[in-house]
Amino acid sequence: MKIKILKKIIGKNNPTFMIAEAGCNYEGDFKKAKEMVVAAAAAGADAIKFQTFIPEKLVTKTAPKFWDIPGCPGKTQYEEFKETPQLSFKEYRELKRIAEKHGIILFSTPSDEESADMLDKLGVPMYKIASMDITHVPLLKHVAKKRKPIIISTGASTIDEIKEAVKVIESAGNRKIILLHCITNYPTKVNDVNLNMMKHLMEVFPDYPVGYSDHTEMPKSKDIIIAAVAMGAKVIEKHFTFDKNRPGYDHKISADYEDLKEIIKSIRMVEIALGNEIKKPVASEEKARILARRSLVAAKDIPRGTTITREMIAVKRPGTGIEPKFLNTVIGKKAKKNIKEDEVITWEMIK
User: Fold this and answer.
1) Which N-terminal stretch is annotated as signal sequence (predicted)?
2) Which architecture characterizes domain 283-349 according to CATH?
3) Half-sphere exposure (CA, 13 Å, Cβ side) for 96?
């Protein structure tokens, strides 16, 4: 299946859709958020994504943290989310205007129905469902009814949980689904990446594009992302920041502008290199195909009327004469003309 998002198409034989995940990395600085949109576009990203949530609708006030990373605020999940800055509708509208001006798609991950409705009012062309909300059936149904493309991250999910989520969305009449393999651990260790899990997703969900959301640290991320593209990922998501050295887990696993530009440059090069799936000669090989292959050649002078024997024939370049596979066919034929030593033999010379 191919999924159209504005002027972009996600699916087979189309460029990899590259998402710069800004999340909350702008740190409450709206000027910085605007700069990140422009920078992501300049780096060549197809989309930039933020995160939209209401702490009171997301987590209880006493929910313990599942990661203990220096630089992250608060002692509980609630405290952390409460201190994490959020964009207002007015700010989102301005970011969307800037994104449109610079030719990049802006969208977000809603963590509740109210946030999804706000994004719908904004006019985002697509949604993202976070890995940890893959079992949030009410949210899945609500977003699915918007009838817009939905990207689902599948970190920490079983294949049955993913099947259930896909079924919920399909049941709402929405088949514009994209699945991303990812590992919900920041930063992800290389031995935990498991890119081969994408193959499983492709086998189980052959009708939907599959991609990869990366949570490893640069510079390892680049090689892993390139491998994912070579394996068939149709969407790549990479966290994006203005400074990888800022405190907190998100900056640590992010690419900065130069990183993102290099990743996208490499992706586009690999896409060209992947080329055609059908094995056949390419145009640039044609000269070598003719001149570097071999033909049957006269090993000695062969007078006209002579019956050709094996010792009269050598196999040499170029390949402008009779192919070597016809050696036994040529043996026993007669020369129709004088054939000089080292001359390439053609069918017109024998009978």
Assistant:
1) none
2) Alpha-Beta Complex (3.90)
3) 17
Q: CATH topology of 7-274 equal to that of 283-349? A: no
Confirm whether pTM is higher than 0.85: yes
Best CATH choice for the domain 7-274 from the list 3.20.20.70, 3.30.1330.30, 3.30.230.10, 3.40.1550.10: 3.20.20.70
Phi, psi of 250 (to 5 degrees): -70, -40
Residue 342 has pLDDT above 70, yes or no: yes
The yes-or-no verdict on residue 38 having pLDDT over 80 is yes
How many CB atoms within 10 Å of residue 284? 8
Give per-residue pLDDT as tens, 325-337: 999 999 999 999 9
- Per-residue buried b or exposed e for 259-282, using 16+ beta carbons within 10 Å of the residue's own CB: bbbbbbeebeeeeeeeeeeeeeee
Spell out the domain ranges in the chain.
7-274, 283-349
Residue 184 has pLDDT above 80, yes or no: yes
Mean pLDDT of the 16-35 span: 96
Percent of the chain at pLDDT > 70 equals 98
Q: Which residues pair with 150 in a beta bridge?
A: 127, 177
pLDDT band at 70 (very low <50, low <70, confident <90, very high): low
CB 312 within 8 A of CB 298: yes
**Residue-wise burial string across 53-65, b where 16 or more C-beta atoms lie within 10 A, e elsewhere:** bebeebbeeeeee
